[in-house]
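Not sure how to ask, but would you mind making up any protein sequence you like and the tokens describing how it folds?
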Amino acid sequence: MHLEAQILEMHAITNDVYSMTLQCPGVADSAQPGQFVHVAVAQPGSTDPLLRRPLSICDADRSKGTVELVFRIVGRGTRLLAGRQASERIDLMGPIGTGFRRPRPGRVPLVVAGGIGIAPLHFLCRALLSVGVSPYVIAGFSTRSDMILVDRLVRYGAKVQVITEDGSFGLAGKVTEYIERAAQEINSHSHGEVELYACGPLGMINSVREWCLETGVFGQVSLESRMACGTGACLGCVLRVITASGEERYERVCVDGPVFDVRRIVTC
């Protein structure tokens, strides 16, 4: 869906991470956790940069018709986007893609977030908590100053364990080093099986995938990819997967994903 939205608020969360709240009922009404919008980042009246940027939906409020996007400045396009002001209008497409499926009955969601990957998982946690399902979140960041959205998740009622690579907050190390420990804690306290949800850097996703395959834990991962069209037409974001019949084929991260069952992924 091609839409125009009004920017209600734009503010910096950290030095390079921004939150943008849009008045956009067309997206808010149907957005599901794990989906994204494809945003035109050029200034009004310009087509430079030409390509849009895919941004995960961090939150959506149907009653207010608002959508929150949280993004990191990684290049010229996102830097231009961060410079936009409240009351300006912005062109976007969405919601796009296949989102997260809710855990099966009796399963406890273990949410593994790496850096800016916490944004779509924030939306997922909100949705789970709204139906009485309490996720266990382990969130990894490079350092304390990179932490985002953790306080909000705690305030909503999620159990959150923060891991920083430099040990400046929470536990020290990489978030993937604590997946087994978190799963054991869930099993000992709830006596339920774990179902894993993850989004983060490629290295983290590969480690999550390997852990799920080794342990037999069902997992869903949200993948990042460079996208040109965002509609599946250009085939610029294909991923090799295994079908239900055991055959290999390519699927598009933009419309067939960005969320995939880890058991289907051949290579990230």
The longest strand covers residues 2-12.
